[in-house]
Design a protein that fits this description.
Blueprint lengths: L3 E4 L6 H16 L4 E5 L5 H9 L6 E2 L13 E2 L3 E2 L4 H11 L3 E5 L6 E6 H10 L4 E5 H7 L2 E5 L4 E8 L4 H7 L6 E5 L3 H9 L4 E4 L7 H9 L3 E5 L3 H7 L18 E2 L4 H11 L3 E5 L5 E6 L10 E5 L15 E7 L13 E4 L5 H11 L6 H15 L9 H14 L3 H12 L7 H6 L2 E6 L2 E9 L3 H6 L1 H14 L5 E7 L4 E6 L4 H8 L8 E4 L4 H14 L1
Parallel strand pairs: 1-2, 1-17, 2-3, 5-6, 10-11, 11-12, 12-13, 14-15, 17-18, 18-19, 21-22
Antiparallel strand pairs: 4-16, 6-7, 8-10, 9-13, 15-16, 20-21, 22-23, 23-24
């Protein structure tokens, strides 16, 4: 069963991370292979929650682009160096491929590639006076019968007894580096055996004389007989050579199983090859990718939680199959080609919706999962102080607190206290910690929100924070950028913004002569108070 990745937005907050975990648990209970993921570094608050409830942090998902591993490439299509040229050709014909990777049979390391063209060139232009093969490959290649075998590997000069026997005996000095193809010629056979040749190949289906056989055994001469005549034997025996004698091991173009199909198409368009070896990070060969198979792929399956905009989601989402969305924001830019489950409700937290899904499917919520879900609701509703909080959020909060066996008010403040500490963060990390992109009237703006109980730490270096905001605006080509520093105790937010946003926010919050760091009472929700009001101003 294909995995289903469940994840929130690029700036993982407590609601999005806990929603991914809670929904993954539910999906598993429903029989699906679901797995939670995160798209970025979790913040201090979320880290506190995961540690408190002893839950492992989800793995990071870098992208959901279609990769080589998602295609139906020819897995395990390769040969080892002990294959003969003939066996390689037959393997290609059986598998209908014109190229094959050649690997080390022990380490699986890619050594080179062999193609039909290489085999054809060897037949036309190869050297026929040398053999580097195995005893078994020679048997297979000439339909031979084993008579005597002392060596697995047979290497030497290839000779054919086509001269008169006395010419051979008197003129040709045979050694243990020679391989002789000969018919039923007693004197030649005797001379060859006495010379200790590496291998005797007796053609025409003839048997070797018993005395000569004993002599060959004493001299450890390998002997094979074949029904083929000498001409046919000499024609075919070169195909028994090890395939690594003709492989191409220079400048091989390979693809890692993690490479994207986009990368494959770009590289293949430059090199024009039809087949490419597929390897892993250790250069171990996994198989063969045919360019024709690139379009035959399986999309990664995804469930989006706490967002439904491409700009906030994982890289390559347009190449994935979105099977479900669970969100509590406005409907954004994500579209699908097929109908899906799209659950959206005007509530304060994604986990409130997921709680409803548990009830609808009659799945019990374990204590740990209840605590995790409660954390998400407490975070997004600011312990029910946010104007996004609904009666349903409050009811679910109470129910989950009972299951988790905690006082949600005390636990919530403990969670916020841990999460709002700015210690150990650089100024840019503070600003970017929850900075989101929004497309309003075809203009991209950046709006961040930071929760802290220590506004003085920001005010002390206010000018430096403003400089970083200006840099982020230019670097990311935003229309403007604003950061809201929210204090849940005072129930309001301090605003810092790029210089060209002053008039926009004066209209948005009806403030005359807005200053950097102005406190905006009762403004605590980016989703319900900041973005909607901003849209009204920009749209008009």
């Amino acid at each position: 069963m294909d995995p289903i990745y469940i994840f929130g937005h690029q700036k993982p907050d407590t609601d999005s991370v806990t929603a991914a975990i809670a929904l993954s648990y539910l999906e598993k209970k429903l029989g699906n292979n679901a797995s939670p993921r995160i798209l970025g570094t979790v913040n201090k608050e979320t880290s506190f929650v995961l540690k408190y409830w002893k839950e492992k942090q989800p793995k990071r998902l870098n992208n959901v682009r279609i990769q080589v591993k998602d295609t139906n490439y020819l897995r395990d299509r390769f040969i080892t160096t002990d294959f003969s040229i003939m066996d390689t050709f037959n393997y290609m014909m059986f598998n209908r491929v014109s190229t094959l990777p050649v690997i080390n049979d022990k380490t699986k390391q890619l050594l080179g590639i062999i193609s039909m063209k290489d085999i054809a060139l060897n037949i036309m232009n190869g050297e026929y006076n040398r053999l580097n093969a195995s005893y078994q490959n020679i048997l297979n290649c000439i339909n031979g019968t084993s008579v005597l075998k002392f060596d697995n590997k047979i290497e030497g000069n290839l000779l054919i007894a086509s001269y008169k026997h006395d010419t051979i005996i008197n003129s040709i000095k045979l050694t243990n580096n020679d391989i002789l193809i000969v018919g039923d010629r007693y004197n030649v056979l005797k001379y060859a055996i006495e010379s200790g040749v590496k291998l005797l190949i007796i053609t025409g289906g003839n048997d070797i004389d018993s005395e000569l056989l004993k002599l060959a055994e004493n001299n450890k001469v390998n002997v094979i007989k074949t029904k083929m005549d000498t001409f046919a034997t000499s024609k075919h025996i070169g195909h028994s050579n090890f395939v690594n004698t003709i492989i191409n091991d220079k400048n091989i173009i390979t693809f890692n199983e993690k490479d994207t199909i986009k990368d494959v198409k770009e590289i293949a368009s430059n090199y024009k090859y039809s087949n490419y070896p597929v390897v892993n990070d250790n250069n171990e060969c996994l198989g063969l990718l045919r360019v024709a198979d690139v379009e035959d792929h399986n999309k990664k399956k995804c469930i989006l939680v706490d967002h439904n905009e491409y700009e906030q989601s994982v890289e390559g989402l347009e190449e994935a199959e979105i099977v479900e969305i669970v969100d509590h924001h406005k409907i954004g830019t994500v579209g699908t080609t097929l109908p899906i489950n799209f659950r959206t409700m005007p509530v304060g937290s994604t986990n409130t919706i997921i709680y409803q899904l548990y009830k609808e499917n009659n799945i019990a919520i374990p204590k740990k999962i209840a605590g995790i879900m409660l954390s998400g609701i407490l975070s997004d509703t600011l312990i029910s102080k946010s104007p996004t909080t609904t009666n349903l959020d409050r009811q679910v909060m109470i129910e989950l607190a009972k299951i988790a066996d905690v006082n949600y008010h005390d636990y919530g403040f403990e969670m916020f206290k841990a999460g709002t500490s700015l210690d150990g963060l650089t100024k840019e990390e503070i600003i970017r910690s929850d900075l989101k992109s929004f497309n309003i009237d075809e203009q991209f703006i950046g709006v961040g929100q930071v929760f802290t109980l220590d506004i003085e730490k920001i005010n002390k270096d206010k000018d430096k924070y403003i400089d970083i905001i200006e840099e982020i605006k230019v670097k990311n080509n935003y229309k403007f950028v604003a950061i809201f520093i929210t204090d849940i105790i005072k129930n309001g937010s301090y605003i810092f913004y790029s210089s060209d946003a002053k008039k926009v926010f004066e209209k948005t919050f009806k403030v005359e002569d807005l200053k950097q760091g102005t406190f905006l009472p009762n403004i605590v929700s980016r989703k319900k108070q900041i973005i909607p009001n901003l849209m009204n101003v920009i749209g008009n």
